[in-house]
Amino acid sequence: MIDPRLSVIDERLGRIKKIIAVASGKGGVGKSLIASTLALILSEKGFRAGLMDLDFTNPSTHLILGAESAYPLEDKGVVPPKIRGVSYASISFFTGGKPSPLRGEDVTNAFIEILALTRWGGLDYLVIDTPPGMGDALLDLLRLIRRVGFLVVSTPSRLSLETIKKLIEILRGVQARVIGVVENMASGEMRSIRREVEELGETYLGSISFDPEVEEAIGKPDKLLRTRFAEDLRRVTDKLV
Amino acid sequence: MHEWALAEAVVSAASKIAGERGLGKITLVKIRVGELQQIDLEVFKFALSQIAEKILPEASFEISVEKAEFRCRVCGRTWRFSGEELDPEVREAIHVVPEVAHAFLRCPRCGSPDFEVVRGRGVWIESIAGEKLG
To answer: Residue B121 and residue A76: Cβ atoms within 8 Å?
Structure first.
């Protein structure tokens, strides 16, 4: 028995120039906020940008983008809706806000299904928000989208740093591309993260200050783009494009 | 109408297999469709014929539907999928991504969302028949 879906994935992604996965290993470091805002910034800069939420059991990018009622067009597959210029795909379209507890095999199947059905068309950048951990979603991402590059997010915490070291080790082990490390929720000058990242031989892309106003901007993409958080992320984005 | 996307996947996979096996032409592709996928078979057949017209012009497609069955991982209860009893929006959601069944269905005995799809999920190529080159 052959699963035919696997044979069309490369074709579905074929007109996307760059694919960036935002990952950290740890939860609560701001991956979803960075992934969503990065896609918005890329679109703001005039790039054709897309965002895919790979956190199937606890998606949140639809809340950040205010896209709770978004639904894709079904036309020989699934055509992502555009949210403030960003082509957007999330399992939240189909779960209606209900919890969707999935085991590994189901995560894999849902991911393959979405990859096989989604017609992204031509994009300059596809940003993928990944779930916490180094489990099924990350392994599937590495298996199914070989050319993905990883934007690794850490907070200044030692706990987060130790986790991203493990993540980077895994990524290097499979020859995956690490684009660089972003330090999120920084307060003051935290030299240790930069130093440790550089000692690992990776690129430190910059820090994003802790911004208490971000919470107020959740669900409001225009407001989000006016925050200090977005301003800091623009500086990081400039190093990516 | 994501039947088209799945039909494209079937034709693409069959075409790749033909290349790997050195088949000059494919005459028959047997496909198994899981009930949970709730595919419109007429649309699927039409899409297959349209997409295969140029790529696999001599292929015919034989489609069988496998009933969907679930098994609760907590209490062991097994039960059958009954799409007609679901809200149309839920049915549509499961049609597109069958795994979202876990958001809407529960074990009828213990209420757990921790169940497995024993059978009746996905679209599979069961076998391919053709003629070798030369």
So the answer is: no
